[in-house]
Structures are given as C-alpha cells and as structure tokens.
Amino acid sequence: MPKYNMLIKSAIFEKSSQRWQDCPDDKIPEYAFIGRSNVGKSSLINAVTNHKGLAKTSQTPGKTQLINHFRINNDWFLTDLPGYGYAKVSKSQRQVFEKLITGYILNRKNLVNLFTLIDIRHTPQKIDLEFLEWCGENGVPFSIIFTKEDKMKPNAAKSNVEKYSQRLLETWEELPPMFITSAEKKTGTDAILDFIEQTNQLLRDNKVGF
Ligand code: GTP
Ligand code: MG
C-alpha cells in the first residue's frame, strides 16, 4: 500500500458544540476521537496535528465537555469528544454526556471513522467492549487506537495488544484497523494520518458526498 505521508498544512479550531445539531455544516469527511476520560484523546489530537495546545488537555479526567471541531488542511475535520465512563460526575451529568456522544455519533452524516482510544496498559475493560459492540450494532465504522505506549516496555505493549485482539475475536469476526501510539513520544501518528489520507482518497475516487 502506498504511503502518502500527509502533511499538516493547517490545523484550525473551528467550533465547540453542545449538541450534534450545532456542529459545523461543511460537508467534508470527519474523523472523531472517543474513549474513556483521561485516555489521551486531546493529547493525541495535538500530536497528530503537530499543534501543541490545539486541543485542551488535563491531568484531571472530564476536561473535554463539548464537541470540538478542528479543520485540517481545509479538507477534513478532526473532532475531539468528551470522554465516557467518568465515575466522578453525577449520574445526571453522565447522562447528558452520553446523550451528547450518542446523538453526535448516530446523526453526524459526514463521520467516516470513529477512532476509539484505549489505554494500552489495561486489560480489556467492559465499558470499552460494550461501547464497541454498540458501534457494531449501529453500523458505526470504527478503528482502535492504543494510547500511552511510552508507559510500557515494547514487548509488554505488544503482548497487551495481542490479548486485546484475542478478546475482540471472541465477539467479532474480524479485527478493526488498530494503531499503537504515544502522544508523549509522538509515535504512531503517521500511521493514523496515512489511514485518514487513504480514506479521504477513497471517498474522492468514489465521489462520495455527504
Ligand atoms: P478528557 O478530555 O478528560 O476525556 O481526557 P482526554 O482523553 O482528552 O485526555 P488528555 O489528552 O487530556 O490526557 C489526559 C492525561 O494523560 C494528561 O495528563 C496527559 O498528559 C496524559 N497523556 C495523554 N497521552 C499520553 C501519552 O501518550 N503518554 C503519556 N505518558 N501521557 C499521556
Ligand atoms: Mg479531552
């Protein structure tokens, strides 16, 4: 497969939205980052775009509370979403987030791939597996990004990805695209950009509109 090595010529904050209805209406391909609070979504958006401080990050979970759109190369959107499963917010607040996230995923017509981020250090967690199953049931195309690879020895990281794959194959017939990353060391980001560029190209070749 050819390597495109997409260059980031521009990465611009577009808008924060509280509801999917308020999201920008440009009909360009969109890719979103989702996952548990604190998994590293916002950090990885900064690493992938090579723009420090573009997305707001925090050591405290629950930092991103809105749908944040970033316009990349004036060609596609990269979207930062609030994390799911943060135990320390009230039940009603959690329901608000869940509604915001599911409303966005199910209604955003130009969303071509949902990158689900998983902390590579952990054994498969019920909340993530259930979320992926929900994606499958609703026909949402997703990929998996393992984060914080710098916190593990390479062999241990590989072994955890292998265990994760085995667990997924108990439920799924085939594995989704998977990426291993570190926002800290900026590793794995080129592979994500290649994937996005190839998907964009496929959409262009097939004249897919939204
Ligand atoms: P919410 O917006 O609260 O859902 O969190 P988030 O998923 O956007 O996480 P965020 O990017 O804010 O990062 C959470 C914490 O993890 C911060 O302290 C980051 O510095 C740290 N972090 C994120 N990515 C990495 C990584 O690749 N390596 C290491 N070592 N730390 C990371
Ligand atoms: Mg965030």
UniProtKB/TrEMBL annotation:
GO terms for biological process: division septum assembly. Keywords: Cell cycle, Cell division, GTP-binding, Magnesium, Metal-binding, Nucleotide-binding, Septation. CDD domains: YihA_EngB. GO terms for molecular function: GTP binding; metal ion binding. The keyword Acyltransferase does not apply. The keyword Translocase does not apply. It comes from the Bacteria. The lineage of its organism: Bacteria, Pseudomonadati, Bacteroidota, Flavobacteriia, Flavobacteriales. SUPFAM superfamilies: P-loop containing nucleoside triphosphate hydrolases. It holds the Pfam family MMR_HSR1. This is Probable GTP-binding protein EngB.
